[in-house]
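Anyone up for a design puzzle?
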């Protein structure tokens, strides 16, 4: 059980953030004007390009550090294929709405978030920490958009497709696979700690970075309101 503790704490925090933001936003969110959506479109395109590089760094760590019979690299590779589609989707949406992606300038919150990702690409960052962050970044989108697809949420029809992009079952399955990898590694780090084979720095770092992801996500979404 001790091994599950770090993950449990993380997950509760994640759910807490998600529910709070959805509840407080719901009225505004249902009236999300298109220029707010377009802000996020351009900003997320920039973010996702950075996220691809981060995913590549996580893939290298998985390949180096994990027992590959567990199939971690395939899960991450599948995620990268999804990011490839996501970039194509951003381009399609941008041309539909007349947004010039090449002229989009990253806003402050996005710059800070991208710099955070860059710091985690270093080979010194442990695989356990990196995969926990990777899972959290994907899961926060999956849970939020899946929630917007629920019947009682009043999501406007024009945003349904956006919600489907991250809220669909396939993306949910993939997030679940990432969660299993993160859990396995966090449990192992916890067991190593109990056996005196390692210090608690990996677990502490995973928790700290996960909380940072949540803070960056809040700031990222505040950009659409012009408050970041
Ligand atoms: C800001 N977080 C942000 N953008 C995304 N596209 C995701 C998470 C999920 O890929």
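Challenge accepted. My sequence:
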């Amino acid at each position: 059980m001790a091994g599950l503790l770090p993950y449990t704490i993380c997950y509760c925090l994640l759910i807490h953030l998600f529910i709070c933001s959805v509840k407080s936003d719901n009225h505004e969110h249902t009236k999300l004007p298109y220029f707010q959506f377009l802000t996020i479109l351009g900003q997320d395109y920039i973010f996702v390009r950075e996220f691809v590089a981060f995913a590549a760094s996580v893939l290298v760590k998985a390949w180096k550090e994990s027992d590959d019979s567990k199939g971690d690299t395939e899960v991450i590779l599948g995620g990268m294929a999804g990011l490839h589609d996501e970039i194509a989707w951003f381009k399609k949406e941008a041309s539909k709405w007349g947004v010039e992606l090449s002229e989009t300038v990253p806003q402050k919150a996005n710059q800070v978030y991208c710099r955070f990702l860059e710091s985690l690409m270093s080979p010194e960052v442990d695989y356990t920490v990196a995969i926990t962050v990777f899972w959290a970044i994907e899961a926060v989108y999956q849970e939020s958009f899946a929630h917007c697809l629920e019947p009682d949420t009043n999501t406007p029809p024009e945003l349904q497709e956006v919600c489907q992009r991250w809220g669909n079952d396939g993306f949910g399955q993939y997030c679940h696979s990432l969660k299993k990898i993160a859990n396995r590694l966090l449990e192992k780090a916890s067991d190593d700690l109990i056996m005196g084979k390692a210090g608690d720095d990996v677990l502490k770092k995973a928790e700290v970075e996960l909380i940072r992801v949540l803070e960056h996500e809040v700031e990222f979404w505040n950009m659409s309101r012009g408050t970041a």
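A detail worth pointing out: The two ends are 40 Å apart (CA to CA).
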